[in-house]
């Protein structure tokens, strides 16, 4: 450290890059002061006055007038769902109460509360007053160990060091894409698929390549199409299982085929498994990592859906890398990315071990039973509606319905169809164009049963009003 007090300024020399030890934790004295990062020059030197505040080196302003613009990243950030929904003219029928089947939030209608044990864990964490401060950016060690214990299995063992806690599963996905991909790289994304993948990738200059899912095969991946998209700049394959928006669940055999393609082309997998274990009875789908012998996998999950608390914003990344392909570089890269913010909510982290260990199995089975029952009602009702082709889900919270648009000449596309469904019947389903899959719409099956029945009846009435049989001329074309 060198000091020069006569002009009321001195220099503080930081050692190296400011990273201390394996976990790269900033000194607590620097957290929240602005010293770590913002005021640091490229050589690790700070200019500090005697009062301890930072100021930049003198430089002439080259600007002659105000000109403040949004960054390229901000301008390139676009959520396809918002882009479509915000442009829709939604004016519900005033004579019919609105039924929103569009929002992937199981808490909206209040019929699916989380378990009392989950609430008690949070109350205990708050009352303890042990979790009001900063945690390590990757999460408390004890909480990470609890997640590792919960998801570890002989085929895919986990330790605390393999777990990173995040602010919801969305941040887990963001970190996974961020650590694996550079601008100019491409990622393979399911179509239809969760819109956030594209939002996160494109905003940072990463290209998205859409691989097809096959509705006639319960939304299995078109493996040949997926493989054809892989090139030397493919840095990540995203696999969503169980699926949003499809509600599909891949079989063990299909997952093994996916791994075979990834192994052949040496492409790591980002497994979005936020709906893991939300699988209907009679169906089984192991985690991708439990089937992988060589493909490294970043599995993203969280509390949001299985525990019915999306607003608590607690997610995780599980690092599966038994052959050390990721090595220390990806692990350290993830740690560095977590330091962009100060980690997931500490109160929820404090409750996490109890949530995982004390939630009764009956809570999970009750939720799944309800979702399956609602899905069966919806599928059964809409299967007999001329012009609609629902696909029965096997898990998660969604059901996709195909629209035979040639039977509905009143409408240009699925957006127009669903917009008019709101206008006439006050039922809001999400047009699948939001998932880049036109002529389908998605139904969320978490609404109360009587509301599900009523919604299906209104959809039937709507279709009966607008359905037109094909003429002989149409059939000849």
From TrEMBL:
Coiled coil: none annotated. It catalyses: L-tyrosine + 2-oxoglutarate = 3-(4-hydroxyphenyl)pyruvate + L-glutamate. GO terms for biological process: L-phenylalanine catabolic process; L-tyrosine catabolic process. Its EC number is 2.6.1.5. Belongs to the class-I pyridoxal-phosphate-dependent aminotransferase family. The keyword RNA-binding does not apply. The gene is tat. The keyword Signal does not apply. Keywords: Aminotransferase, Phenylalanine catabolism, Pyridoxal phosphate, Transferase, Tyrosine catabolism. The modification N6-(pyridoxal phosphate)lysine is found at residue 305. It holds the Pfam family Aminotran_1_2. Residues 97-459 form the Aminotransferase class I/classII large domain. SUPFAM superfamilies: PLP-dependent transferases. PROSITE patterns: AA_TRANSFER_CLASS_1. This is Tyrosine aminotransferase. Its cofactor is pyridoxal 5'-phosphate. The lineage of its organism: Eukaryota, Metazoa, Chordata, Craniata, Vertebrata. One of its GO terms (molecular function) is L-tyrosine-2-oxoglutarate transaminase activity. Homodimer. Transaminase involved in tyrosine breakdown. Converts tyrosine to p-hydroxyphenylpyruvate. Pathway: Amino-acid degradation; L-phenylalanine degradation; acetoacetate and fumarate from L-phenylalanine: step 2/6.
């Amino acid at each position: 450290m060198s000091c020069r007090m006569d002009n009321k300024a001195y220099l503080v020399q930081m050692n190296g890059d400011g990273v201390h030890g394996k976990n790269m934790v900033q000194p607590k004295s620097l957290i929240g002061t602005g010293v770590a990062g913002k005021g640091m020059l490229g050589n690790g030197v700070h200019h500090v006055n005697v009062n301890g505040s930072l100021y930049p080196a003198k430089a002439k302003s080259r600007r002659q007038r105000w000109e403040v613009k949004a960054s390229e990243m901000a301008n390139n950030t676009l959520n396809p769902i918002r882009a479509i929904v915000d442009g829709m003219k939604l004016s519900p029928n005033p004579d019919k109460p609105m039924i929103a089947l569009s929002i992937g939030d199981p808490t909206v209608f209040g019929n699916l509360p989380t378990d009392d044990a989950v609430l008690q864990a949070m109350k205990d964490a708050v009352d303890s007053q042990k979790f009001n401060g900063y945690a390590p950016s990757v999460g408390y060690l004890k909480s990470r160990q609890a997640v590792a214990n919960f998801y570890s299995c002989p085929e895919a063992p986990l330790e605390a060091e393999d777990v990173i806690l995040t602010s919801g599963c969305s941040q887990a996905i963001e970190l996974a894409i961020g650590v694996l991909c550079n601008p100019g790289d491409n990622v393979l994304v399911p179509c239809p698929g969760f819109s956030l993948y594209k939002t996160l990738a494109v905003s940072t200059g990463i290209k998205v390549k859409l691989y097809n899912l096959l509705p006639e095969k319960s939304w299995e991946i078109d493996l040949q199409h997926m493989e054809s998209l892989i090139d030397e700049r493919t840095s990540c394959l995203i696999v969503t299982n169980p699926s949003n928006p499809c509600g599909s669940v891949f079989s063990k055999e299909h997952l093994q085929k996916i791994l075979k393609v990834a192994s052949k082309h040496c492409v790591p997998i980002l497994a979005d498994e936020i709906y893991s274990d939300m699988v209907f009875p009679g169906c089984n789908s192991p985690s991708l990592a439990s089937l992988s012998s060589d493909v490294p996998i970043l599995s993203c999950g969280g509390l949001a859906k299985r525990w019915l608390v999306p607003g608590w914003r607690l997610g995780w990344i599980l690092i599966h890398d038994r052959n050390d392909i990721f090595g220390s570089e990806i692990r350290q890269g993830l740690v560095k990315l977590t330091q962009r913010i100060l980690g997931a909510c500490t109160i929820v982290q404090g409750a996490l071990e109890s949530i995982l260990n004390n939630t009764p199995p009956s809570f999970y089975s009750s939720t799944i039973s309800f979702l399956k029952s609602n899905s069966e009602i919806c599928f059964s009702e809409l299967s007999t509606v001329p012009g609609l082709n629902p696909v029965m889900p096997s898990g998660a919270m969604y059901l996709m319905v195909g629209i035979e648009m040639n039977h509905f000449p009143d409408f240009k596309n699925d957006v127009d169809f669903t917009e008019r469904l709101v206008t006439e019947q006050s039922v809001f389903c999400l047009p699948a164009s939001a998932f880049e899959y036109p002529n389908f719409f998605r139904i969320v099956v978490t609404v109360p049963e009587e509301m599900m029945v009523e919604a299906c009846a209104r959809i039937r009435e709507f279709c009966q009003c607008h359905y037109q049989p094909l003429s002989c001329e149409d059939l000849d074309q």
